[in-house]
Amino acid sequence: MNWKPLGPEDLIGQAARVAKAQVTKARRLASGDRPSASMKLLLYGPPGVGKTSVVEMVARELTGSALAVEDFNGREVTVEVVREWMRSLAYGNLFSRWSVRIVNELDRCSKEAQDLLLTYLDRLPPGRALLGTSNLQLDLLTERFQTRFQAVKLLPPETEELADFLIAHWPVPRQTALQIAVGSGGCVRAALADLESWIDCRP
Predict the structure, then answer these.
(1) Residues 138 and 166 in one domain
(2) Which letter does DSSP use for residue 33 in this model?
(3) pLDDT, tens digit, for every residue of 28-82?
(4) Are residues 102 and 73 in the same domain?
(5) Tens digits of per-residue pLDDT, 171-180?
(6) Whose CB among 5, 40, 45, 72 lies 3.0–4.6 Å from 154's, allowing a Cys bridge?
(7) For the whole model, what pTM was predicted?
(8) 43-75 exposure pattern, b = at least 16 Cβ within 10 A, e = fewer
(9) Domain of 113?
(10) Do 115 and 170 fall within a single domain?
(11) Alpha helix stretches (DSSP H) within the chain
């Protein structure tokens, strides 16, 4: 099973609502003859609730081209990497009026890299976006770092909500869907993996 959400309607619970709001905002920012603002978004919360899917949707809406989006894990974002980003701030993108960097697990950046990212975020010109995710609580990032982003917490869906989502997309009995939803603890990724195992074991 290779479930890849393409739009807010493919998500569940709070992730769907946040995606709809942020994609609408991105569409507004991307409209017009030239960008007039930057975008700095941080989604945080437990694993598997849709954080990466939401930022990918926002990036697509801003750029219209995968060639204008760079994707990183926080561990890759070193002081040297951030310095290179700062040196490139004066240059646009050949494929879009927007350039987007996605950093998953932003909390895995070293403290030194986080400190330099403060300067990078302050200098971010119109038409640039830094979209981050974190599995940690917001207060585990440095306070100054938190204030540079629009920070949104994503919560896991309720059991019934997750079961209804599974039933709506796959031919699974309600009792099985409820058992999968309970067992996943609200982690959509885990629920989909359990559902795939159930489908594979069917005669």
Answers:
(1) no
(2) S
(3) 999 988 898 999 999 999 999 999 999 999 999 999 999 999 999 999 999 999 9
(4) yes
(5) 999 999 999 9
(6) 45
(7) 0.91
(8) bbbbebbbbbbbbbbbbbbbbeeeebbebbebe
(9) 8-153
(10) no
(11) 14-30, 51-63, 79-87, 111-122, 143-146, 159-169, 174-184, 188-201
